[in-house]
Every structure is written in C-alpha cells, then in structure tokens.
Design goal:
The protein has about 375 residues and is an alpha/beta fold. The chain folds into two domains: about 200 residues, 3-Layer(aba) Sandwich (Rossmann fold); about 150 residues, Glycogen Phosphorylase B (Rossmann fold, 3-Layer(aba) Sandwich), CATH 3.40.50.2000. The strands form two sheets. Strands 3-4-2-1-5-6-7-8 form an eight-stranded mixed sheet, with helices on both faces. A six-stranded parallel sheet has the order 11-10-9-12-13-14, sandwiched between helices. The chain is elongated. The two termini are about 40 Å apart. About 40% of the residues are buried.
Length: about 375
C-alpha cells in the first residue's frame, strides 16, 4: 500500500507546478468514467469527445479531465490539447475501486492547488458525481452533474447518496429528465443534449445501398433481436432488402444464430465494431436507421443518422423530434409499419442538424459562470 500511495503522489506533470502570473481562464474539471486514450480512439463515448473538444476551444475556459476507469492504465497524457489524468481503474471492484477513487482525489487536489478549479463537471450520476459532490462541498466550488445513460433509472445504487440541492443536474432529453424524476422525485431543470459538429457529416456516397442500418452495442438493452424480427417481417414485400448492424457485444452469437435460423444471411450483416468515421461513412450509404433500443438518455446515434441524410425509426426514448424523417413508434408493430412506409416512399436524402454542438457549449458555459 505504501508503494501505491507513493506512486499516486508523484507529480502529475513536470511543467506546471508554479502558477502563471498571467490571467488564466476558468478551470473546469471533468470527472468521467472513461475518456479516449488517444486521438484515434473514436469509439469511446463520441458525444463526450465532441463536447470536450469543442468546449476546450473556447478561450474563457480550460478543460482538464480525470478519467476513473478507462484508459485501463494509470497516467497523464494530452488529448487534442486537453490534459487527461487517467486513474486506470479498469472496472475493478472492492478495495481496488477505493484505490481508484483515492487516485482521483489526489489528481484533483494537485490540479486545484496549481490552478484553482472553478467548476467540477461530473458525467453520469455514479462514482464520478459522488466524488465530485464530496470535493465540491469541501472546497465550496460549483458542481454540475450530467445524466448520460441508464444512471437516471431507479436501479442506480448511487442515487440514494446524492444531495441534490448541492449540484446542478442536467439531462440530455425530456425522456431522461422524466426517468430521473420518477426515480428520485427530483427535477432535472436543465435539458442539454450534446449536439453535433457541422464537419461531422461525411461526403455523400455514390448510392444508398444499405436499406436498414443498426448502430450500437450488441446488448439486450439495444434489442437487435427485434431488428432481425422486423427484417423477417419485411422480407416478403421487399425481397431484396439489405440490412446491416454495426457493433460488438455479448449478444453477437445469439444474433448470428437468429439470422441463420431465419435464413436471413443475405439480408442482415453483422459488420462488427467500426471507428466513428467509418460508422458515419456507412450512414452516408444507408437509407433508414432502425434503432430498437428500449432505453436511451439521448441516443446520439439518432442525431448522427439524421445529419447523414437518413430517416430514423425508433421507440420513444432519448432525444427525439417526431417528423416525416424521424418516426417515433409505440411498439414493434408500429415500427414495422413505419419501416414499410419509408421503404415504399424512397425519401430523398436530406441532412438535418437537430442540435449544433455550439448550442451545447453555450448552454454549459452558462452553468460554469
């Protein structure tokens, strides 16, 4: 234990122990479960990457990141000009989890000593927000905590430990805010979805040769078994239907068996995990995003699909704006009807930017003041 403590007490960097005499921007500390390990790590929480990058380009703030679990190794590095301090938790539990928290505290205190942190911004109402609440309370600084996923649900064991009046809660959608209210009895007064950068849209493809696309982790929550069932229902009317699912996860073997059992090998392809630029390029080739997920706080992929010119069929979860191009359905039967309608219509591609990232940055900047 003495060796562990010695290691985490080493200087976090060699270049910045003395405060600059010049005026500094406000120092905003992000506390996150994971952050990209390098500039090529495009699949690690794309929405958070986008927000961190664009927020850091504003001269009035400086962003610093403390990442609890990922990257899996401890260390300090630079990501797109943002200092990142990785605790290297790697999802370990027990006393190792406490060691990760201790590392996060030590990193925070050193950063705060060098250049005063004005706001802690925690992402997910879990260990990051719990530690953020503790540090913000002890040092009397502002704490913003953002719902990002299933953390708004009643099953989140951390919810009972929060003192809601001591933090500003944000939700990425009305759906997430409603879930949070039902779980805690508390309101999330700030609805701030994370938007897209204008340069996220890929070049137009020569043709849209994928009829129905799915993008997401292959988990029970994302519900890609329903994706395959819907393709099976549509095949009699659309015998040349071409579908693909991008992603990896524990459901892959079951989905492969389902595809083979229904004889859909020529209609549904499991494409595996792709980088974000590759995903966007596939979206530029696709007509409809079918997103059967049973829960989303925001569903960043919905925004990405619309911006890439696709139509969207989904359940009423996450950040949705029902329209001709975004069909928000109550159940599987309605999803099937809406898919058939879109396949018959052949809507021309139309790029829709639901929320620019600049609006997200502006909204959070107001909370940092």
């Amino acid at each position: 234990m003495a060796k562990i403590f010695h290691n985490i007490m080493k200087p976090v960097d060699q270049a910045g122990d003395k405060l600059s005499q010049t005026t500094r921007p406000k120092n905003i500390l992000f506390m996150v479960p994971g952050f990209p390990a390098d500039a090529q790590d495009s699949t690690c929480i794309p929405a958070l990457q986008q927000y961190a990058y664009h927020a850091s380009r504003r001269p009035e703030v400086k962003i610093t990141v403390v990442a609890f679990q990922y990257p899996f190794t401890q260390g300090h590095y630079d990501w797109q000009g943002i200092p990142v301090y990785a605790c290297g938790g790697a999802g370990r539990g027990g006393w190792r989890r406490l060691r990760t928290w201790l590392r996060a505290v030590v990193y925070f205190l050193r950063i705060h000593r060098r250049e005063k942190v004005s706001t802690i911004h925690s992402f997910w109402l879990s260990e990051c927000a719990l530690l953020g609440q503790l540090l913000a309370g002890l040092l009397r600084i502002r704490h913003v905590a953002s719902i990002m996923g299933q953390d708004a649900q009643a099953g989140n064991r951390y919810l009972k430990w929060f003192r809601w009046r001591r933090m500003t809660i944000t939700a990425p959608s009305e759906f997430a805010a409603k879930t949070f209210r039902e779980s805690t009895g508390q309101a999330a007064p700030q609805i701030i979805p994370i938007g897209l950068a204008e340069d996220d849209r890929p070049e137009a493809a020569a043709q849209r040769d994928i009829d129905i696309l799915g993008v997401g982790a292959l988990t029970a929550l994302k519900n890609y078994r329903l994706f395959i069932e819907l393709v099976e229902r549509l095949r009699p009317e659309f015998p040349e239907l071409r579908g693909a699912i991008i992603g990896e996860g524990p459901e892959r073997a079951a989905l492969e068996a389902q595809i083979a059992g229904k004889g859909l090998q020529g209609h549904v392809r499991l494409a595996g995990q792709l980088s974000r630029p590759e995903v966007l390029a596939q979206m530029a080739r696709s007509r409809i995003l079918l997103h059967p997920s049973s829960y989303e706080s925001q569903g960043y992929v919905l925004m990405e699909a619309l911006y890439c010119g696709m139509a969207v069929v989904c359940l009423p979860v996450g950040y949705t704006v029902p329209s001709e191009r975004m069909r928000v359905c109550r159940d599987a039967a309605e999803m099937g009807r809406e898919l058939a309608d879109l396949l018959r219509q052949h809507l021309p591609p139309q790029s829709l930017l639901l929320k620019p990232i600049a609006e997200t940055v502006n909204a959070f900047q107001e909370l940092y003041r």
